[in-house]
Write a structure and sequence with these properties.
It is a single chain. The protein has eleven helices and 17 strands. Helix content is about 35%, strand content about 20%. The chain has a six-stranded mixed sheet with strand order 1-6-7-4-3-2, with helices on one face. The protein has about 400 residues and is of the alpha+beta class.
Length: about 400
């Protein structure tokens, strides 16, 4: 659905900025529709439109087409789109507004000298694994998994029904959402089913804290880039600190809180941090779900609901009510966006020829000055326009692969 606002009338009322990235910014807004929903609005300027908005819609549509409908509400999933705005110099997409991000929740807990308890840590871990698996099972790689891209939504305790605890809580609206698919890679877009990739030196996929270490040294990757990031995030949730070095499952046990099922957590973390491509994220999520329901909660759903509701009050509370009260005092955003939007940083991703031949780093040079290359190597050429003719290979965000 494309919304075209009437001339002279802003289609939304902005409350606050939520964050920004390489391709745009996100705001907390109320749409001026009959239902007046509160949503997260991501705005990208013309130069980044292909990466920031159109690509996100394409990925969500393709994942929905490839994956069968789920019988029960999952804990983790992908963003839910509300509407899309088209302008001559920018695009915007409205998504369901979450309560916080995993990053902000961790900061909030540190501010009150608290750590994650095992029940909520298991719940967030299940949601994170299911969310990333939603992309992987549709043959997409996210390539930018980090706490800032994991949104948390809390339901109402009174809406939690009966049945299996995790299913009942998820059905009440408690969930983990993986967002930002600007860098997502569609594995089905390549003729080689084992195609591997190499991130450019300036790629946002290489956030050091969550990037698979070999990728920082120009090694090729596939699922490793996401598996390692998930392992690092879950380690931070469990241990309350950033992983400073690679640890074995035995050493991981000593870093985990007493009273937790250290063996289970260490096994899961070791598989993710080792970035074994054979790892089944869905199976790991089901293992942690069984432990949460049978061993930790033992049928006591209220135990987890109470802990989650404490987190909701911690991160929303007076701040959310204050934002609602101030909504009528906020000046609506103008229809005309800034005349000189910031230019997105250049992004380059290269294709490695094979798992046994990782590409080596080279100084970036303009295309016109680039020397002739062997057909065994492939390099990405950014093109915001759709390629003409039958391009042999095309990656997931408007980048055409040409072998030279």
């Amino acid at each position: 659905l494309v919304a075209r606002p009437r001339r002279g009338e802003a289609p939304w009322v902005a409350h606050r900025a939520l964050g920004h990235g390489a391709f745009g910014a996100v705001f907390d807004v109320t749409l001026r529709t009959e239902a007046r929903p509160r949503v997260a609005l991501k705005i990208c300027f013309a130069g980044a439109r292909r990466f920031g908005i159109e690509r996100e819609i394409e990925v969500l549509a393709e994942v929905s087409r490839r994956r069968p409908a789920l019988k029960t509400a999952p804990v983790g999933g992908l963003a839910e789109l509300e509407t899309f705005f088209a302008y001559r110099d920018a695009s915007a997409v409205a998504m369901r507004l979450a309560d916080t991000t995993l990053s902000d929740l961790a900061k909030g807990l540190r501010g009150v000298a608290m750590r994650f308890s095992e029940p909520v840590a298991l719940f967030y871990a299940i949601g994170t694994l299911e969310a990333v698996d939603a992309l992987h099972s549709a043959d997409f790689l996210h390539a930018d998994v980090k706490p800032d891209n994991l949104c948390l939504t809390y339901g109402e305790p009174d809406d939690v029904g009966t049945g299996k605890p995790v299913d009942a809580i998820a059905a009440a609206g408690y969930r983990v959402t993986l967002i930002d698919y600007s860098l997502a890679v569609d594995l089905r877009a390549y003729e080689n089913p084992d195609q591997r990739f190499v991130s450019g030196a300036d790629s946002p996929a290489q956030v050091p804290e969550y990037c698979w270490p070999p990728a920082l040294k120009d090694a090729s990757w596939r699922r490793e880039i996401d598996l390692y990031a998930v392992g690092r995030i879950l380690y931070q949730v469990a241990a309350g600190s950033i992983l400073s070095k690679t640890l074995t499952s035995t050493n991981l046990e000593t870093r985990l809180p007493r009273g937790w099922n250290r063996r289970l957590w260490a096994d899961v973390l070791a598989k993710l941090i080792d970035a074994d491509e054979s790892v089944d994220l869905g199976a790991l999520a089901r293992t942690m779900r069984r432990h949460l329901e049978k061993d930790v909660l033992a049928g006591d759903t209220a135990k987890l609901v109470e802990a989650l509701d404490h987190h909701r009050r911690l991160v929303t509370g007076e701040a959310r009510r204050g934002a609602d009260a101030a909504a009528t005092r906020v000046k609506p955003m103008e229809d005309d966006l800034p005349s000189e939007p910031p230019k997105p940083e250049p992004r380059t991703v290269r294709v490695s020829p094979s798992p046994t031949q990782p590409a080596r780093g080279r100084a970036k040079r303009p295309r016109s000055e680039a020397p002739a290359r062997s057909s065994r190597r492939a390099r990405a050429v950014v093109s915001y326009a759709e390629p003409k003719g039958n391009a042999k290979l095309r990656n997931s965000h408007g980048v055409v692969w040409t072998s030279r």
